[in-house]
Amino acid sequence: MITPKKINAFTFLKLPSAWWAGVRCKTISEESCTVKVRHKWFNQNPFKSMYFATQAMAAELSTGALVMSFIQKSDARVSMLVARNEAVFTKKATGIITFTCNDGKAIQQAIDKTVATGEGQTVWMESHGVNQDGVEVSQFRFEWTVKKKS
Questions:
Q1: Whole-angstrom Cα distance, residue 19 to residue 17?
Q2: Cα–Cα separations (whole angstroms), residue 80 to 14, 31, 39, 110
Q3: What is any Pfam family matched here (predicted)?
Q4: Do the beta carbons of residue 63 and residue 38 sit within 8 Å?
């Protein structure tokens, strides 16, 4: 079973730029995944807020961890890839930013369908970043593609 500890070890080994930027998974369940990152000197932009790429790494991990979790549960060989992404920034990201994706059911259905049919599937997953005051600072959408390997 995928846990936040295992996801964070994965980022250290396979996504070191996310690890060093401070991206950490906090919770994962069947429905959602929460990832946090703290604004600090290392991940800031020239405007003294969090660099957009750091936000993108955290947002993508909140969606991708759900994809990995359901692939593992399917017990099938399934490839995963981000085909497209979109982002909207609404406020300067400072302090601790929490990214949450609540699209676990959507990716589970796509993985179940690709395992059953062998046909590739796509699903859009959203992650919302909020600051410590609960104010949304950014919103990301990722189009994930999943396909059963032959």
A1: 5
A2: 15, 18, 29, 11
A3: DUF4442
A4: no
Cβ-proximal residues to 49 (8 Å cutoff; 6+ apart), any chain: 39, 92, 93, 94
Q: Token pair of 43, please?
A: 């991940």
**Distance between CA atoms of 59 and 51, rounded to whole angstroms?**
13
Gap between the Cα atoms of 56 and 126, Å rounded: 12
What is the pTM (predicted TM-score) of this model? 0.95
- At residue 73, φ and ψ (nearest 5 deg) are -65, -25
Residue 147 structure tokens: 């396909």
SS3 content of the chain, % helix, strand, coil (to 5): 40, 35, 25
Q: What is the pLDDT of residues 106-146, one digit of tens each?
A: 999 999 999 999 999 999 999 999 999 999 999 999 999 99
pLDDT block averages, 10 residues each, the chain of length 150: 95 96 97 97 94 98 97 95 98 97 97 96 98 98 96
